[in-house]
Specification:
- This protein has 172 residues and is an alpha/beta fold.
- The protein has 6 helices and 6 strands.
- The strands form 3 sheets. It has a two-stranded parallel sheet with strand order 1-5.
- Helix 3 packs across helix 6.
Length: 172
């Protein structure tokens, strides 16, 4: 098997070389993107820390996720429950259900804000990301809810992000 693969590569040297170059460039682009993102985050953090170091007003930035809990108007899980109760055997999820969305229980998020407010000397000029420790994917969330509503869910239907957007070109 290896002999056949090597023979095929040697027979198409240009294709093999271009494929190798494409892989190397792709990895370099992804690595470069990660490095650039981390560099920008570090630069902004440094800029904000220095800017507020001698200021009269100090800001604490708290990044909130999607909140759930008491008095929630429209729980996101209701779309899954409604589809199952309607007798549908498939639940549509974007990108195979691999989408991650940070969430936090409302009382826990409020507690995080109170910790920052009660300790201004420690929280001054810092950024806090408030979210639950575990972040299940959309598919994991749907598969966890389904058995509690119905005995068997047949499948999750994967949608691409583009297929979920309305087509506006036909209106113009």
């Amino acid at each position: 098997m290896t002999r056949v693969a090597l023979k095929g590569l040697l027979g198409r040297k240009l294709r093999a070389s271009l494929t190798a170059i494409a892989v190397v460039l792709g990895v370099a682009m992804i690595s470069g993107t990660y490095i650039l993102t981390d560099t920008i985050k570090g630069a902004f953090s440094t800029v904000f820390t220095r800017a507020f170091q001698h200021a009269d007003a100090v800001i604490t930035h708290i990044r909130y996720p999607y909140l759930y809990g008491p008095r929630q108007l429209a729980p996101r899980e209701w779309s899954i429950i409604r589809r199952i109760r309607d007798g549908r055997t498939s639940i549509p999820v974007i990108d195979g259900g691999l989408t991650l969305e940070s969430r936090a229980y409302a009382d826990n998020a409020a507690h995080a804000v109170l910790l920052a407010v009660d300790q201004p000397d420690k929280s001054a000029g810092r950024t806090y990301h408030v979210a639950d420790e575990a972040t299940p994917t959309d598919a994991e969330r749907a598969l966890e809810i389904a058995p509690k509503v119905v005995e068997k869910l047949r499948r999750l239907s994967s949608l691409t992000p583009a297929s979920t957007q309305p087509v506006l070109e036909s209106l113009s």
